[in-house]
Design a protein that fits this description.
Layout: H1 3-29, H2 31-40, H3 42-61, H4 63-71, H5 74-87, H6 93-105, H7 109-122, H8 124-129, H9 131-140, H10 144-151, H11 163-176, H12 180-190, H13 196-213, H14 217-237, H15 241-250, H16 254-257, H17 260-270
Helix pairs in contact: 1-2, 1-3, 2-3, 4-5, 5-6, 6-7, 9-10, 9-11, 10-11, 11-12, 11-13, 12-13, 13-14, 13-17
């Protein structure tokens, strides 16, 4: 649905809802009571007008951003967001996340590096909040050691977005460096996630890599058992096409799209021998 259509429908629905509430006393109790009611409760109408005014102002101020996202014009969106962030100093988490996503879609790692440097110097809390996006770019460039070094300080950050994925990406960076013993606790943690895709990836890496590298037979069997239990649970929850739909839903996040090849491998493992 076009953004303009959504905007118009939003206003129509809100205004009609207000009119219904405003006129309800009139239809139920008559004009005299209705006038008295609104005379005593005029502030409710004022609050409504302030709210709808604020929401419309938000849409208007961000009209260009929404329009460029709708058109999937990532180059123009990057230029616009660079102007907002670097020139006009409008640092917001939403602007930062959108700009990183736009850069990722254009494979512009230099742009991401410039943005990271800017945030590190001026708004480190926004870098921390969006750490998963900046970390996954290092995995995309096949630099797991840099991903590990970047993500490690943010593992315990409570305000970081997608904290479970941040911890998984950290574990994955360790696994890529063949440091599976260090990755194992984070992968075990991931198998209990409510995020089905993250849980499967954690189980897949546990069963296919971490178990093989386990120092003892008992630990190896324990890891294989946990991976298999997670696999069977997910197979029951998401039979056939339901799993495909779950993956497509998850890929609404660009940092998950970066892991598409691993997700495809884990998906084949999920239904192997089913």
């Amino acid at each position: 649905m076009k953004f303009r259509t959504i905007y118009i429908l939003f206003n129509v629905v809100v205004v009609l809802s207000f009119l219904f509430v405003f006129l309800l006393p009139f239809f139920l109790l008559g004009a005299e009571y209705s006038l008295g009611f609104w005379k005593d409760n005029w502030y409710l109408a004022a609050i409504f007008l302030l709210v709808i005014g604020a929401l419309n102002a938000f849409f208007v101020l961000n009209w260009k951003v929404f329009s460029l996202v709708e058109k999937e014009d990532w180059s123009a969106l990057s230029v616009h967001l660079v102007d907002l962030i670097f020139n006009k100093k409008r640092y917001t988490g939403r602007h930062v996340a959108l700009l990183v996503n736009a850069y990722l879609l254009q494979s512009d790692v230099e742009g991401i590096a410039r943005l990271e440097e800017e945030l590190r110097a001026r708004r480190p809390e926004l870098l921390r909040r969006n750490a998963v996006l900046f970390g996954v770019t290092r995995l995309l460039r096949n630099k797991p050691d840099e991903a590990e070094a970047f993500l490690q300080p943010y593992l315990g950050a409570r305000d970081a977005e997608s904290r479970e994925w941040l911890r998984f990406d950290y574990a994955f960076s360790l696994a890529l460096q063949k440091r599976l013993g260090e990755a194992t606790p984070y992968l075990k943690e991931g198998t209990s996630s409510r995020d089905a895709v993250l849980a499967l990836l954690s189980a897949y890496l546990l069963g296919s890599l971490a178990a093989v590298a386990a120092p003892s037979e008992s630990e190896r069997e324990a890891l294989k058992s946990l991976a298999q239990a997670t696999r069977e649970k997910l197979r029951k929850r998401f039979p056939g096409q339901r799993w495909n739909r779950e993956v497509e839903r998850a890929k609404g996040e660009i940092h998950i799209v970066v892991l598409s090849r691993l997700i495809d491998d884990a998906g084949r493992w999920l239904f192997e021998g089913a």
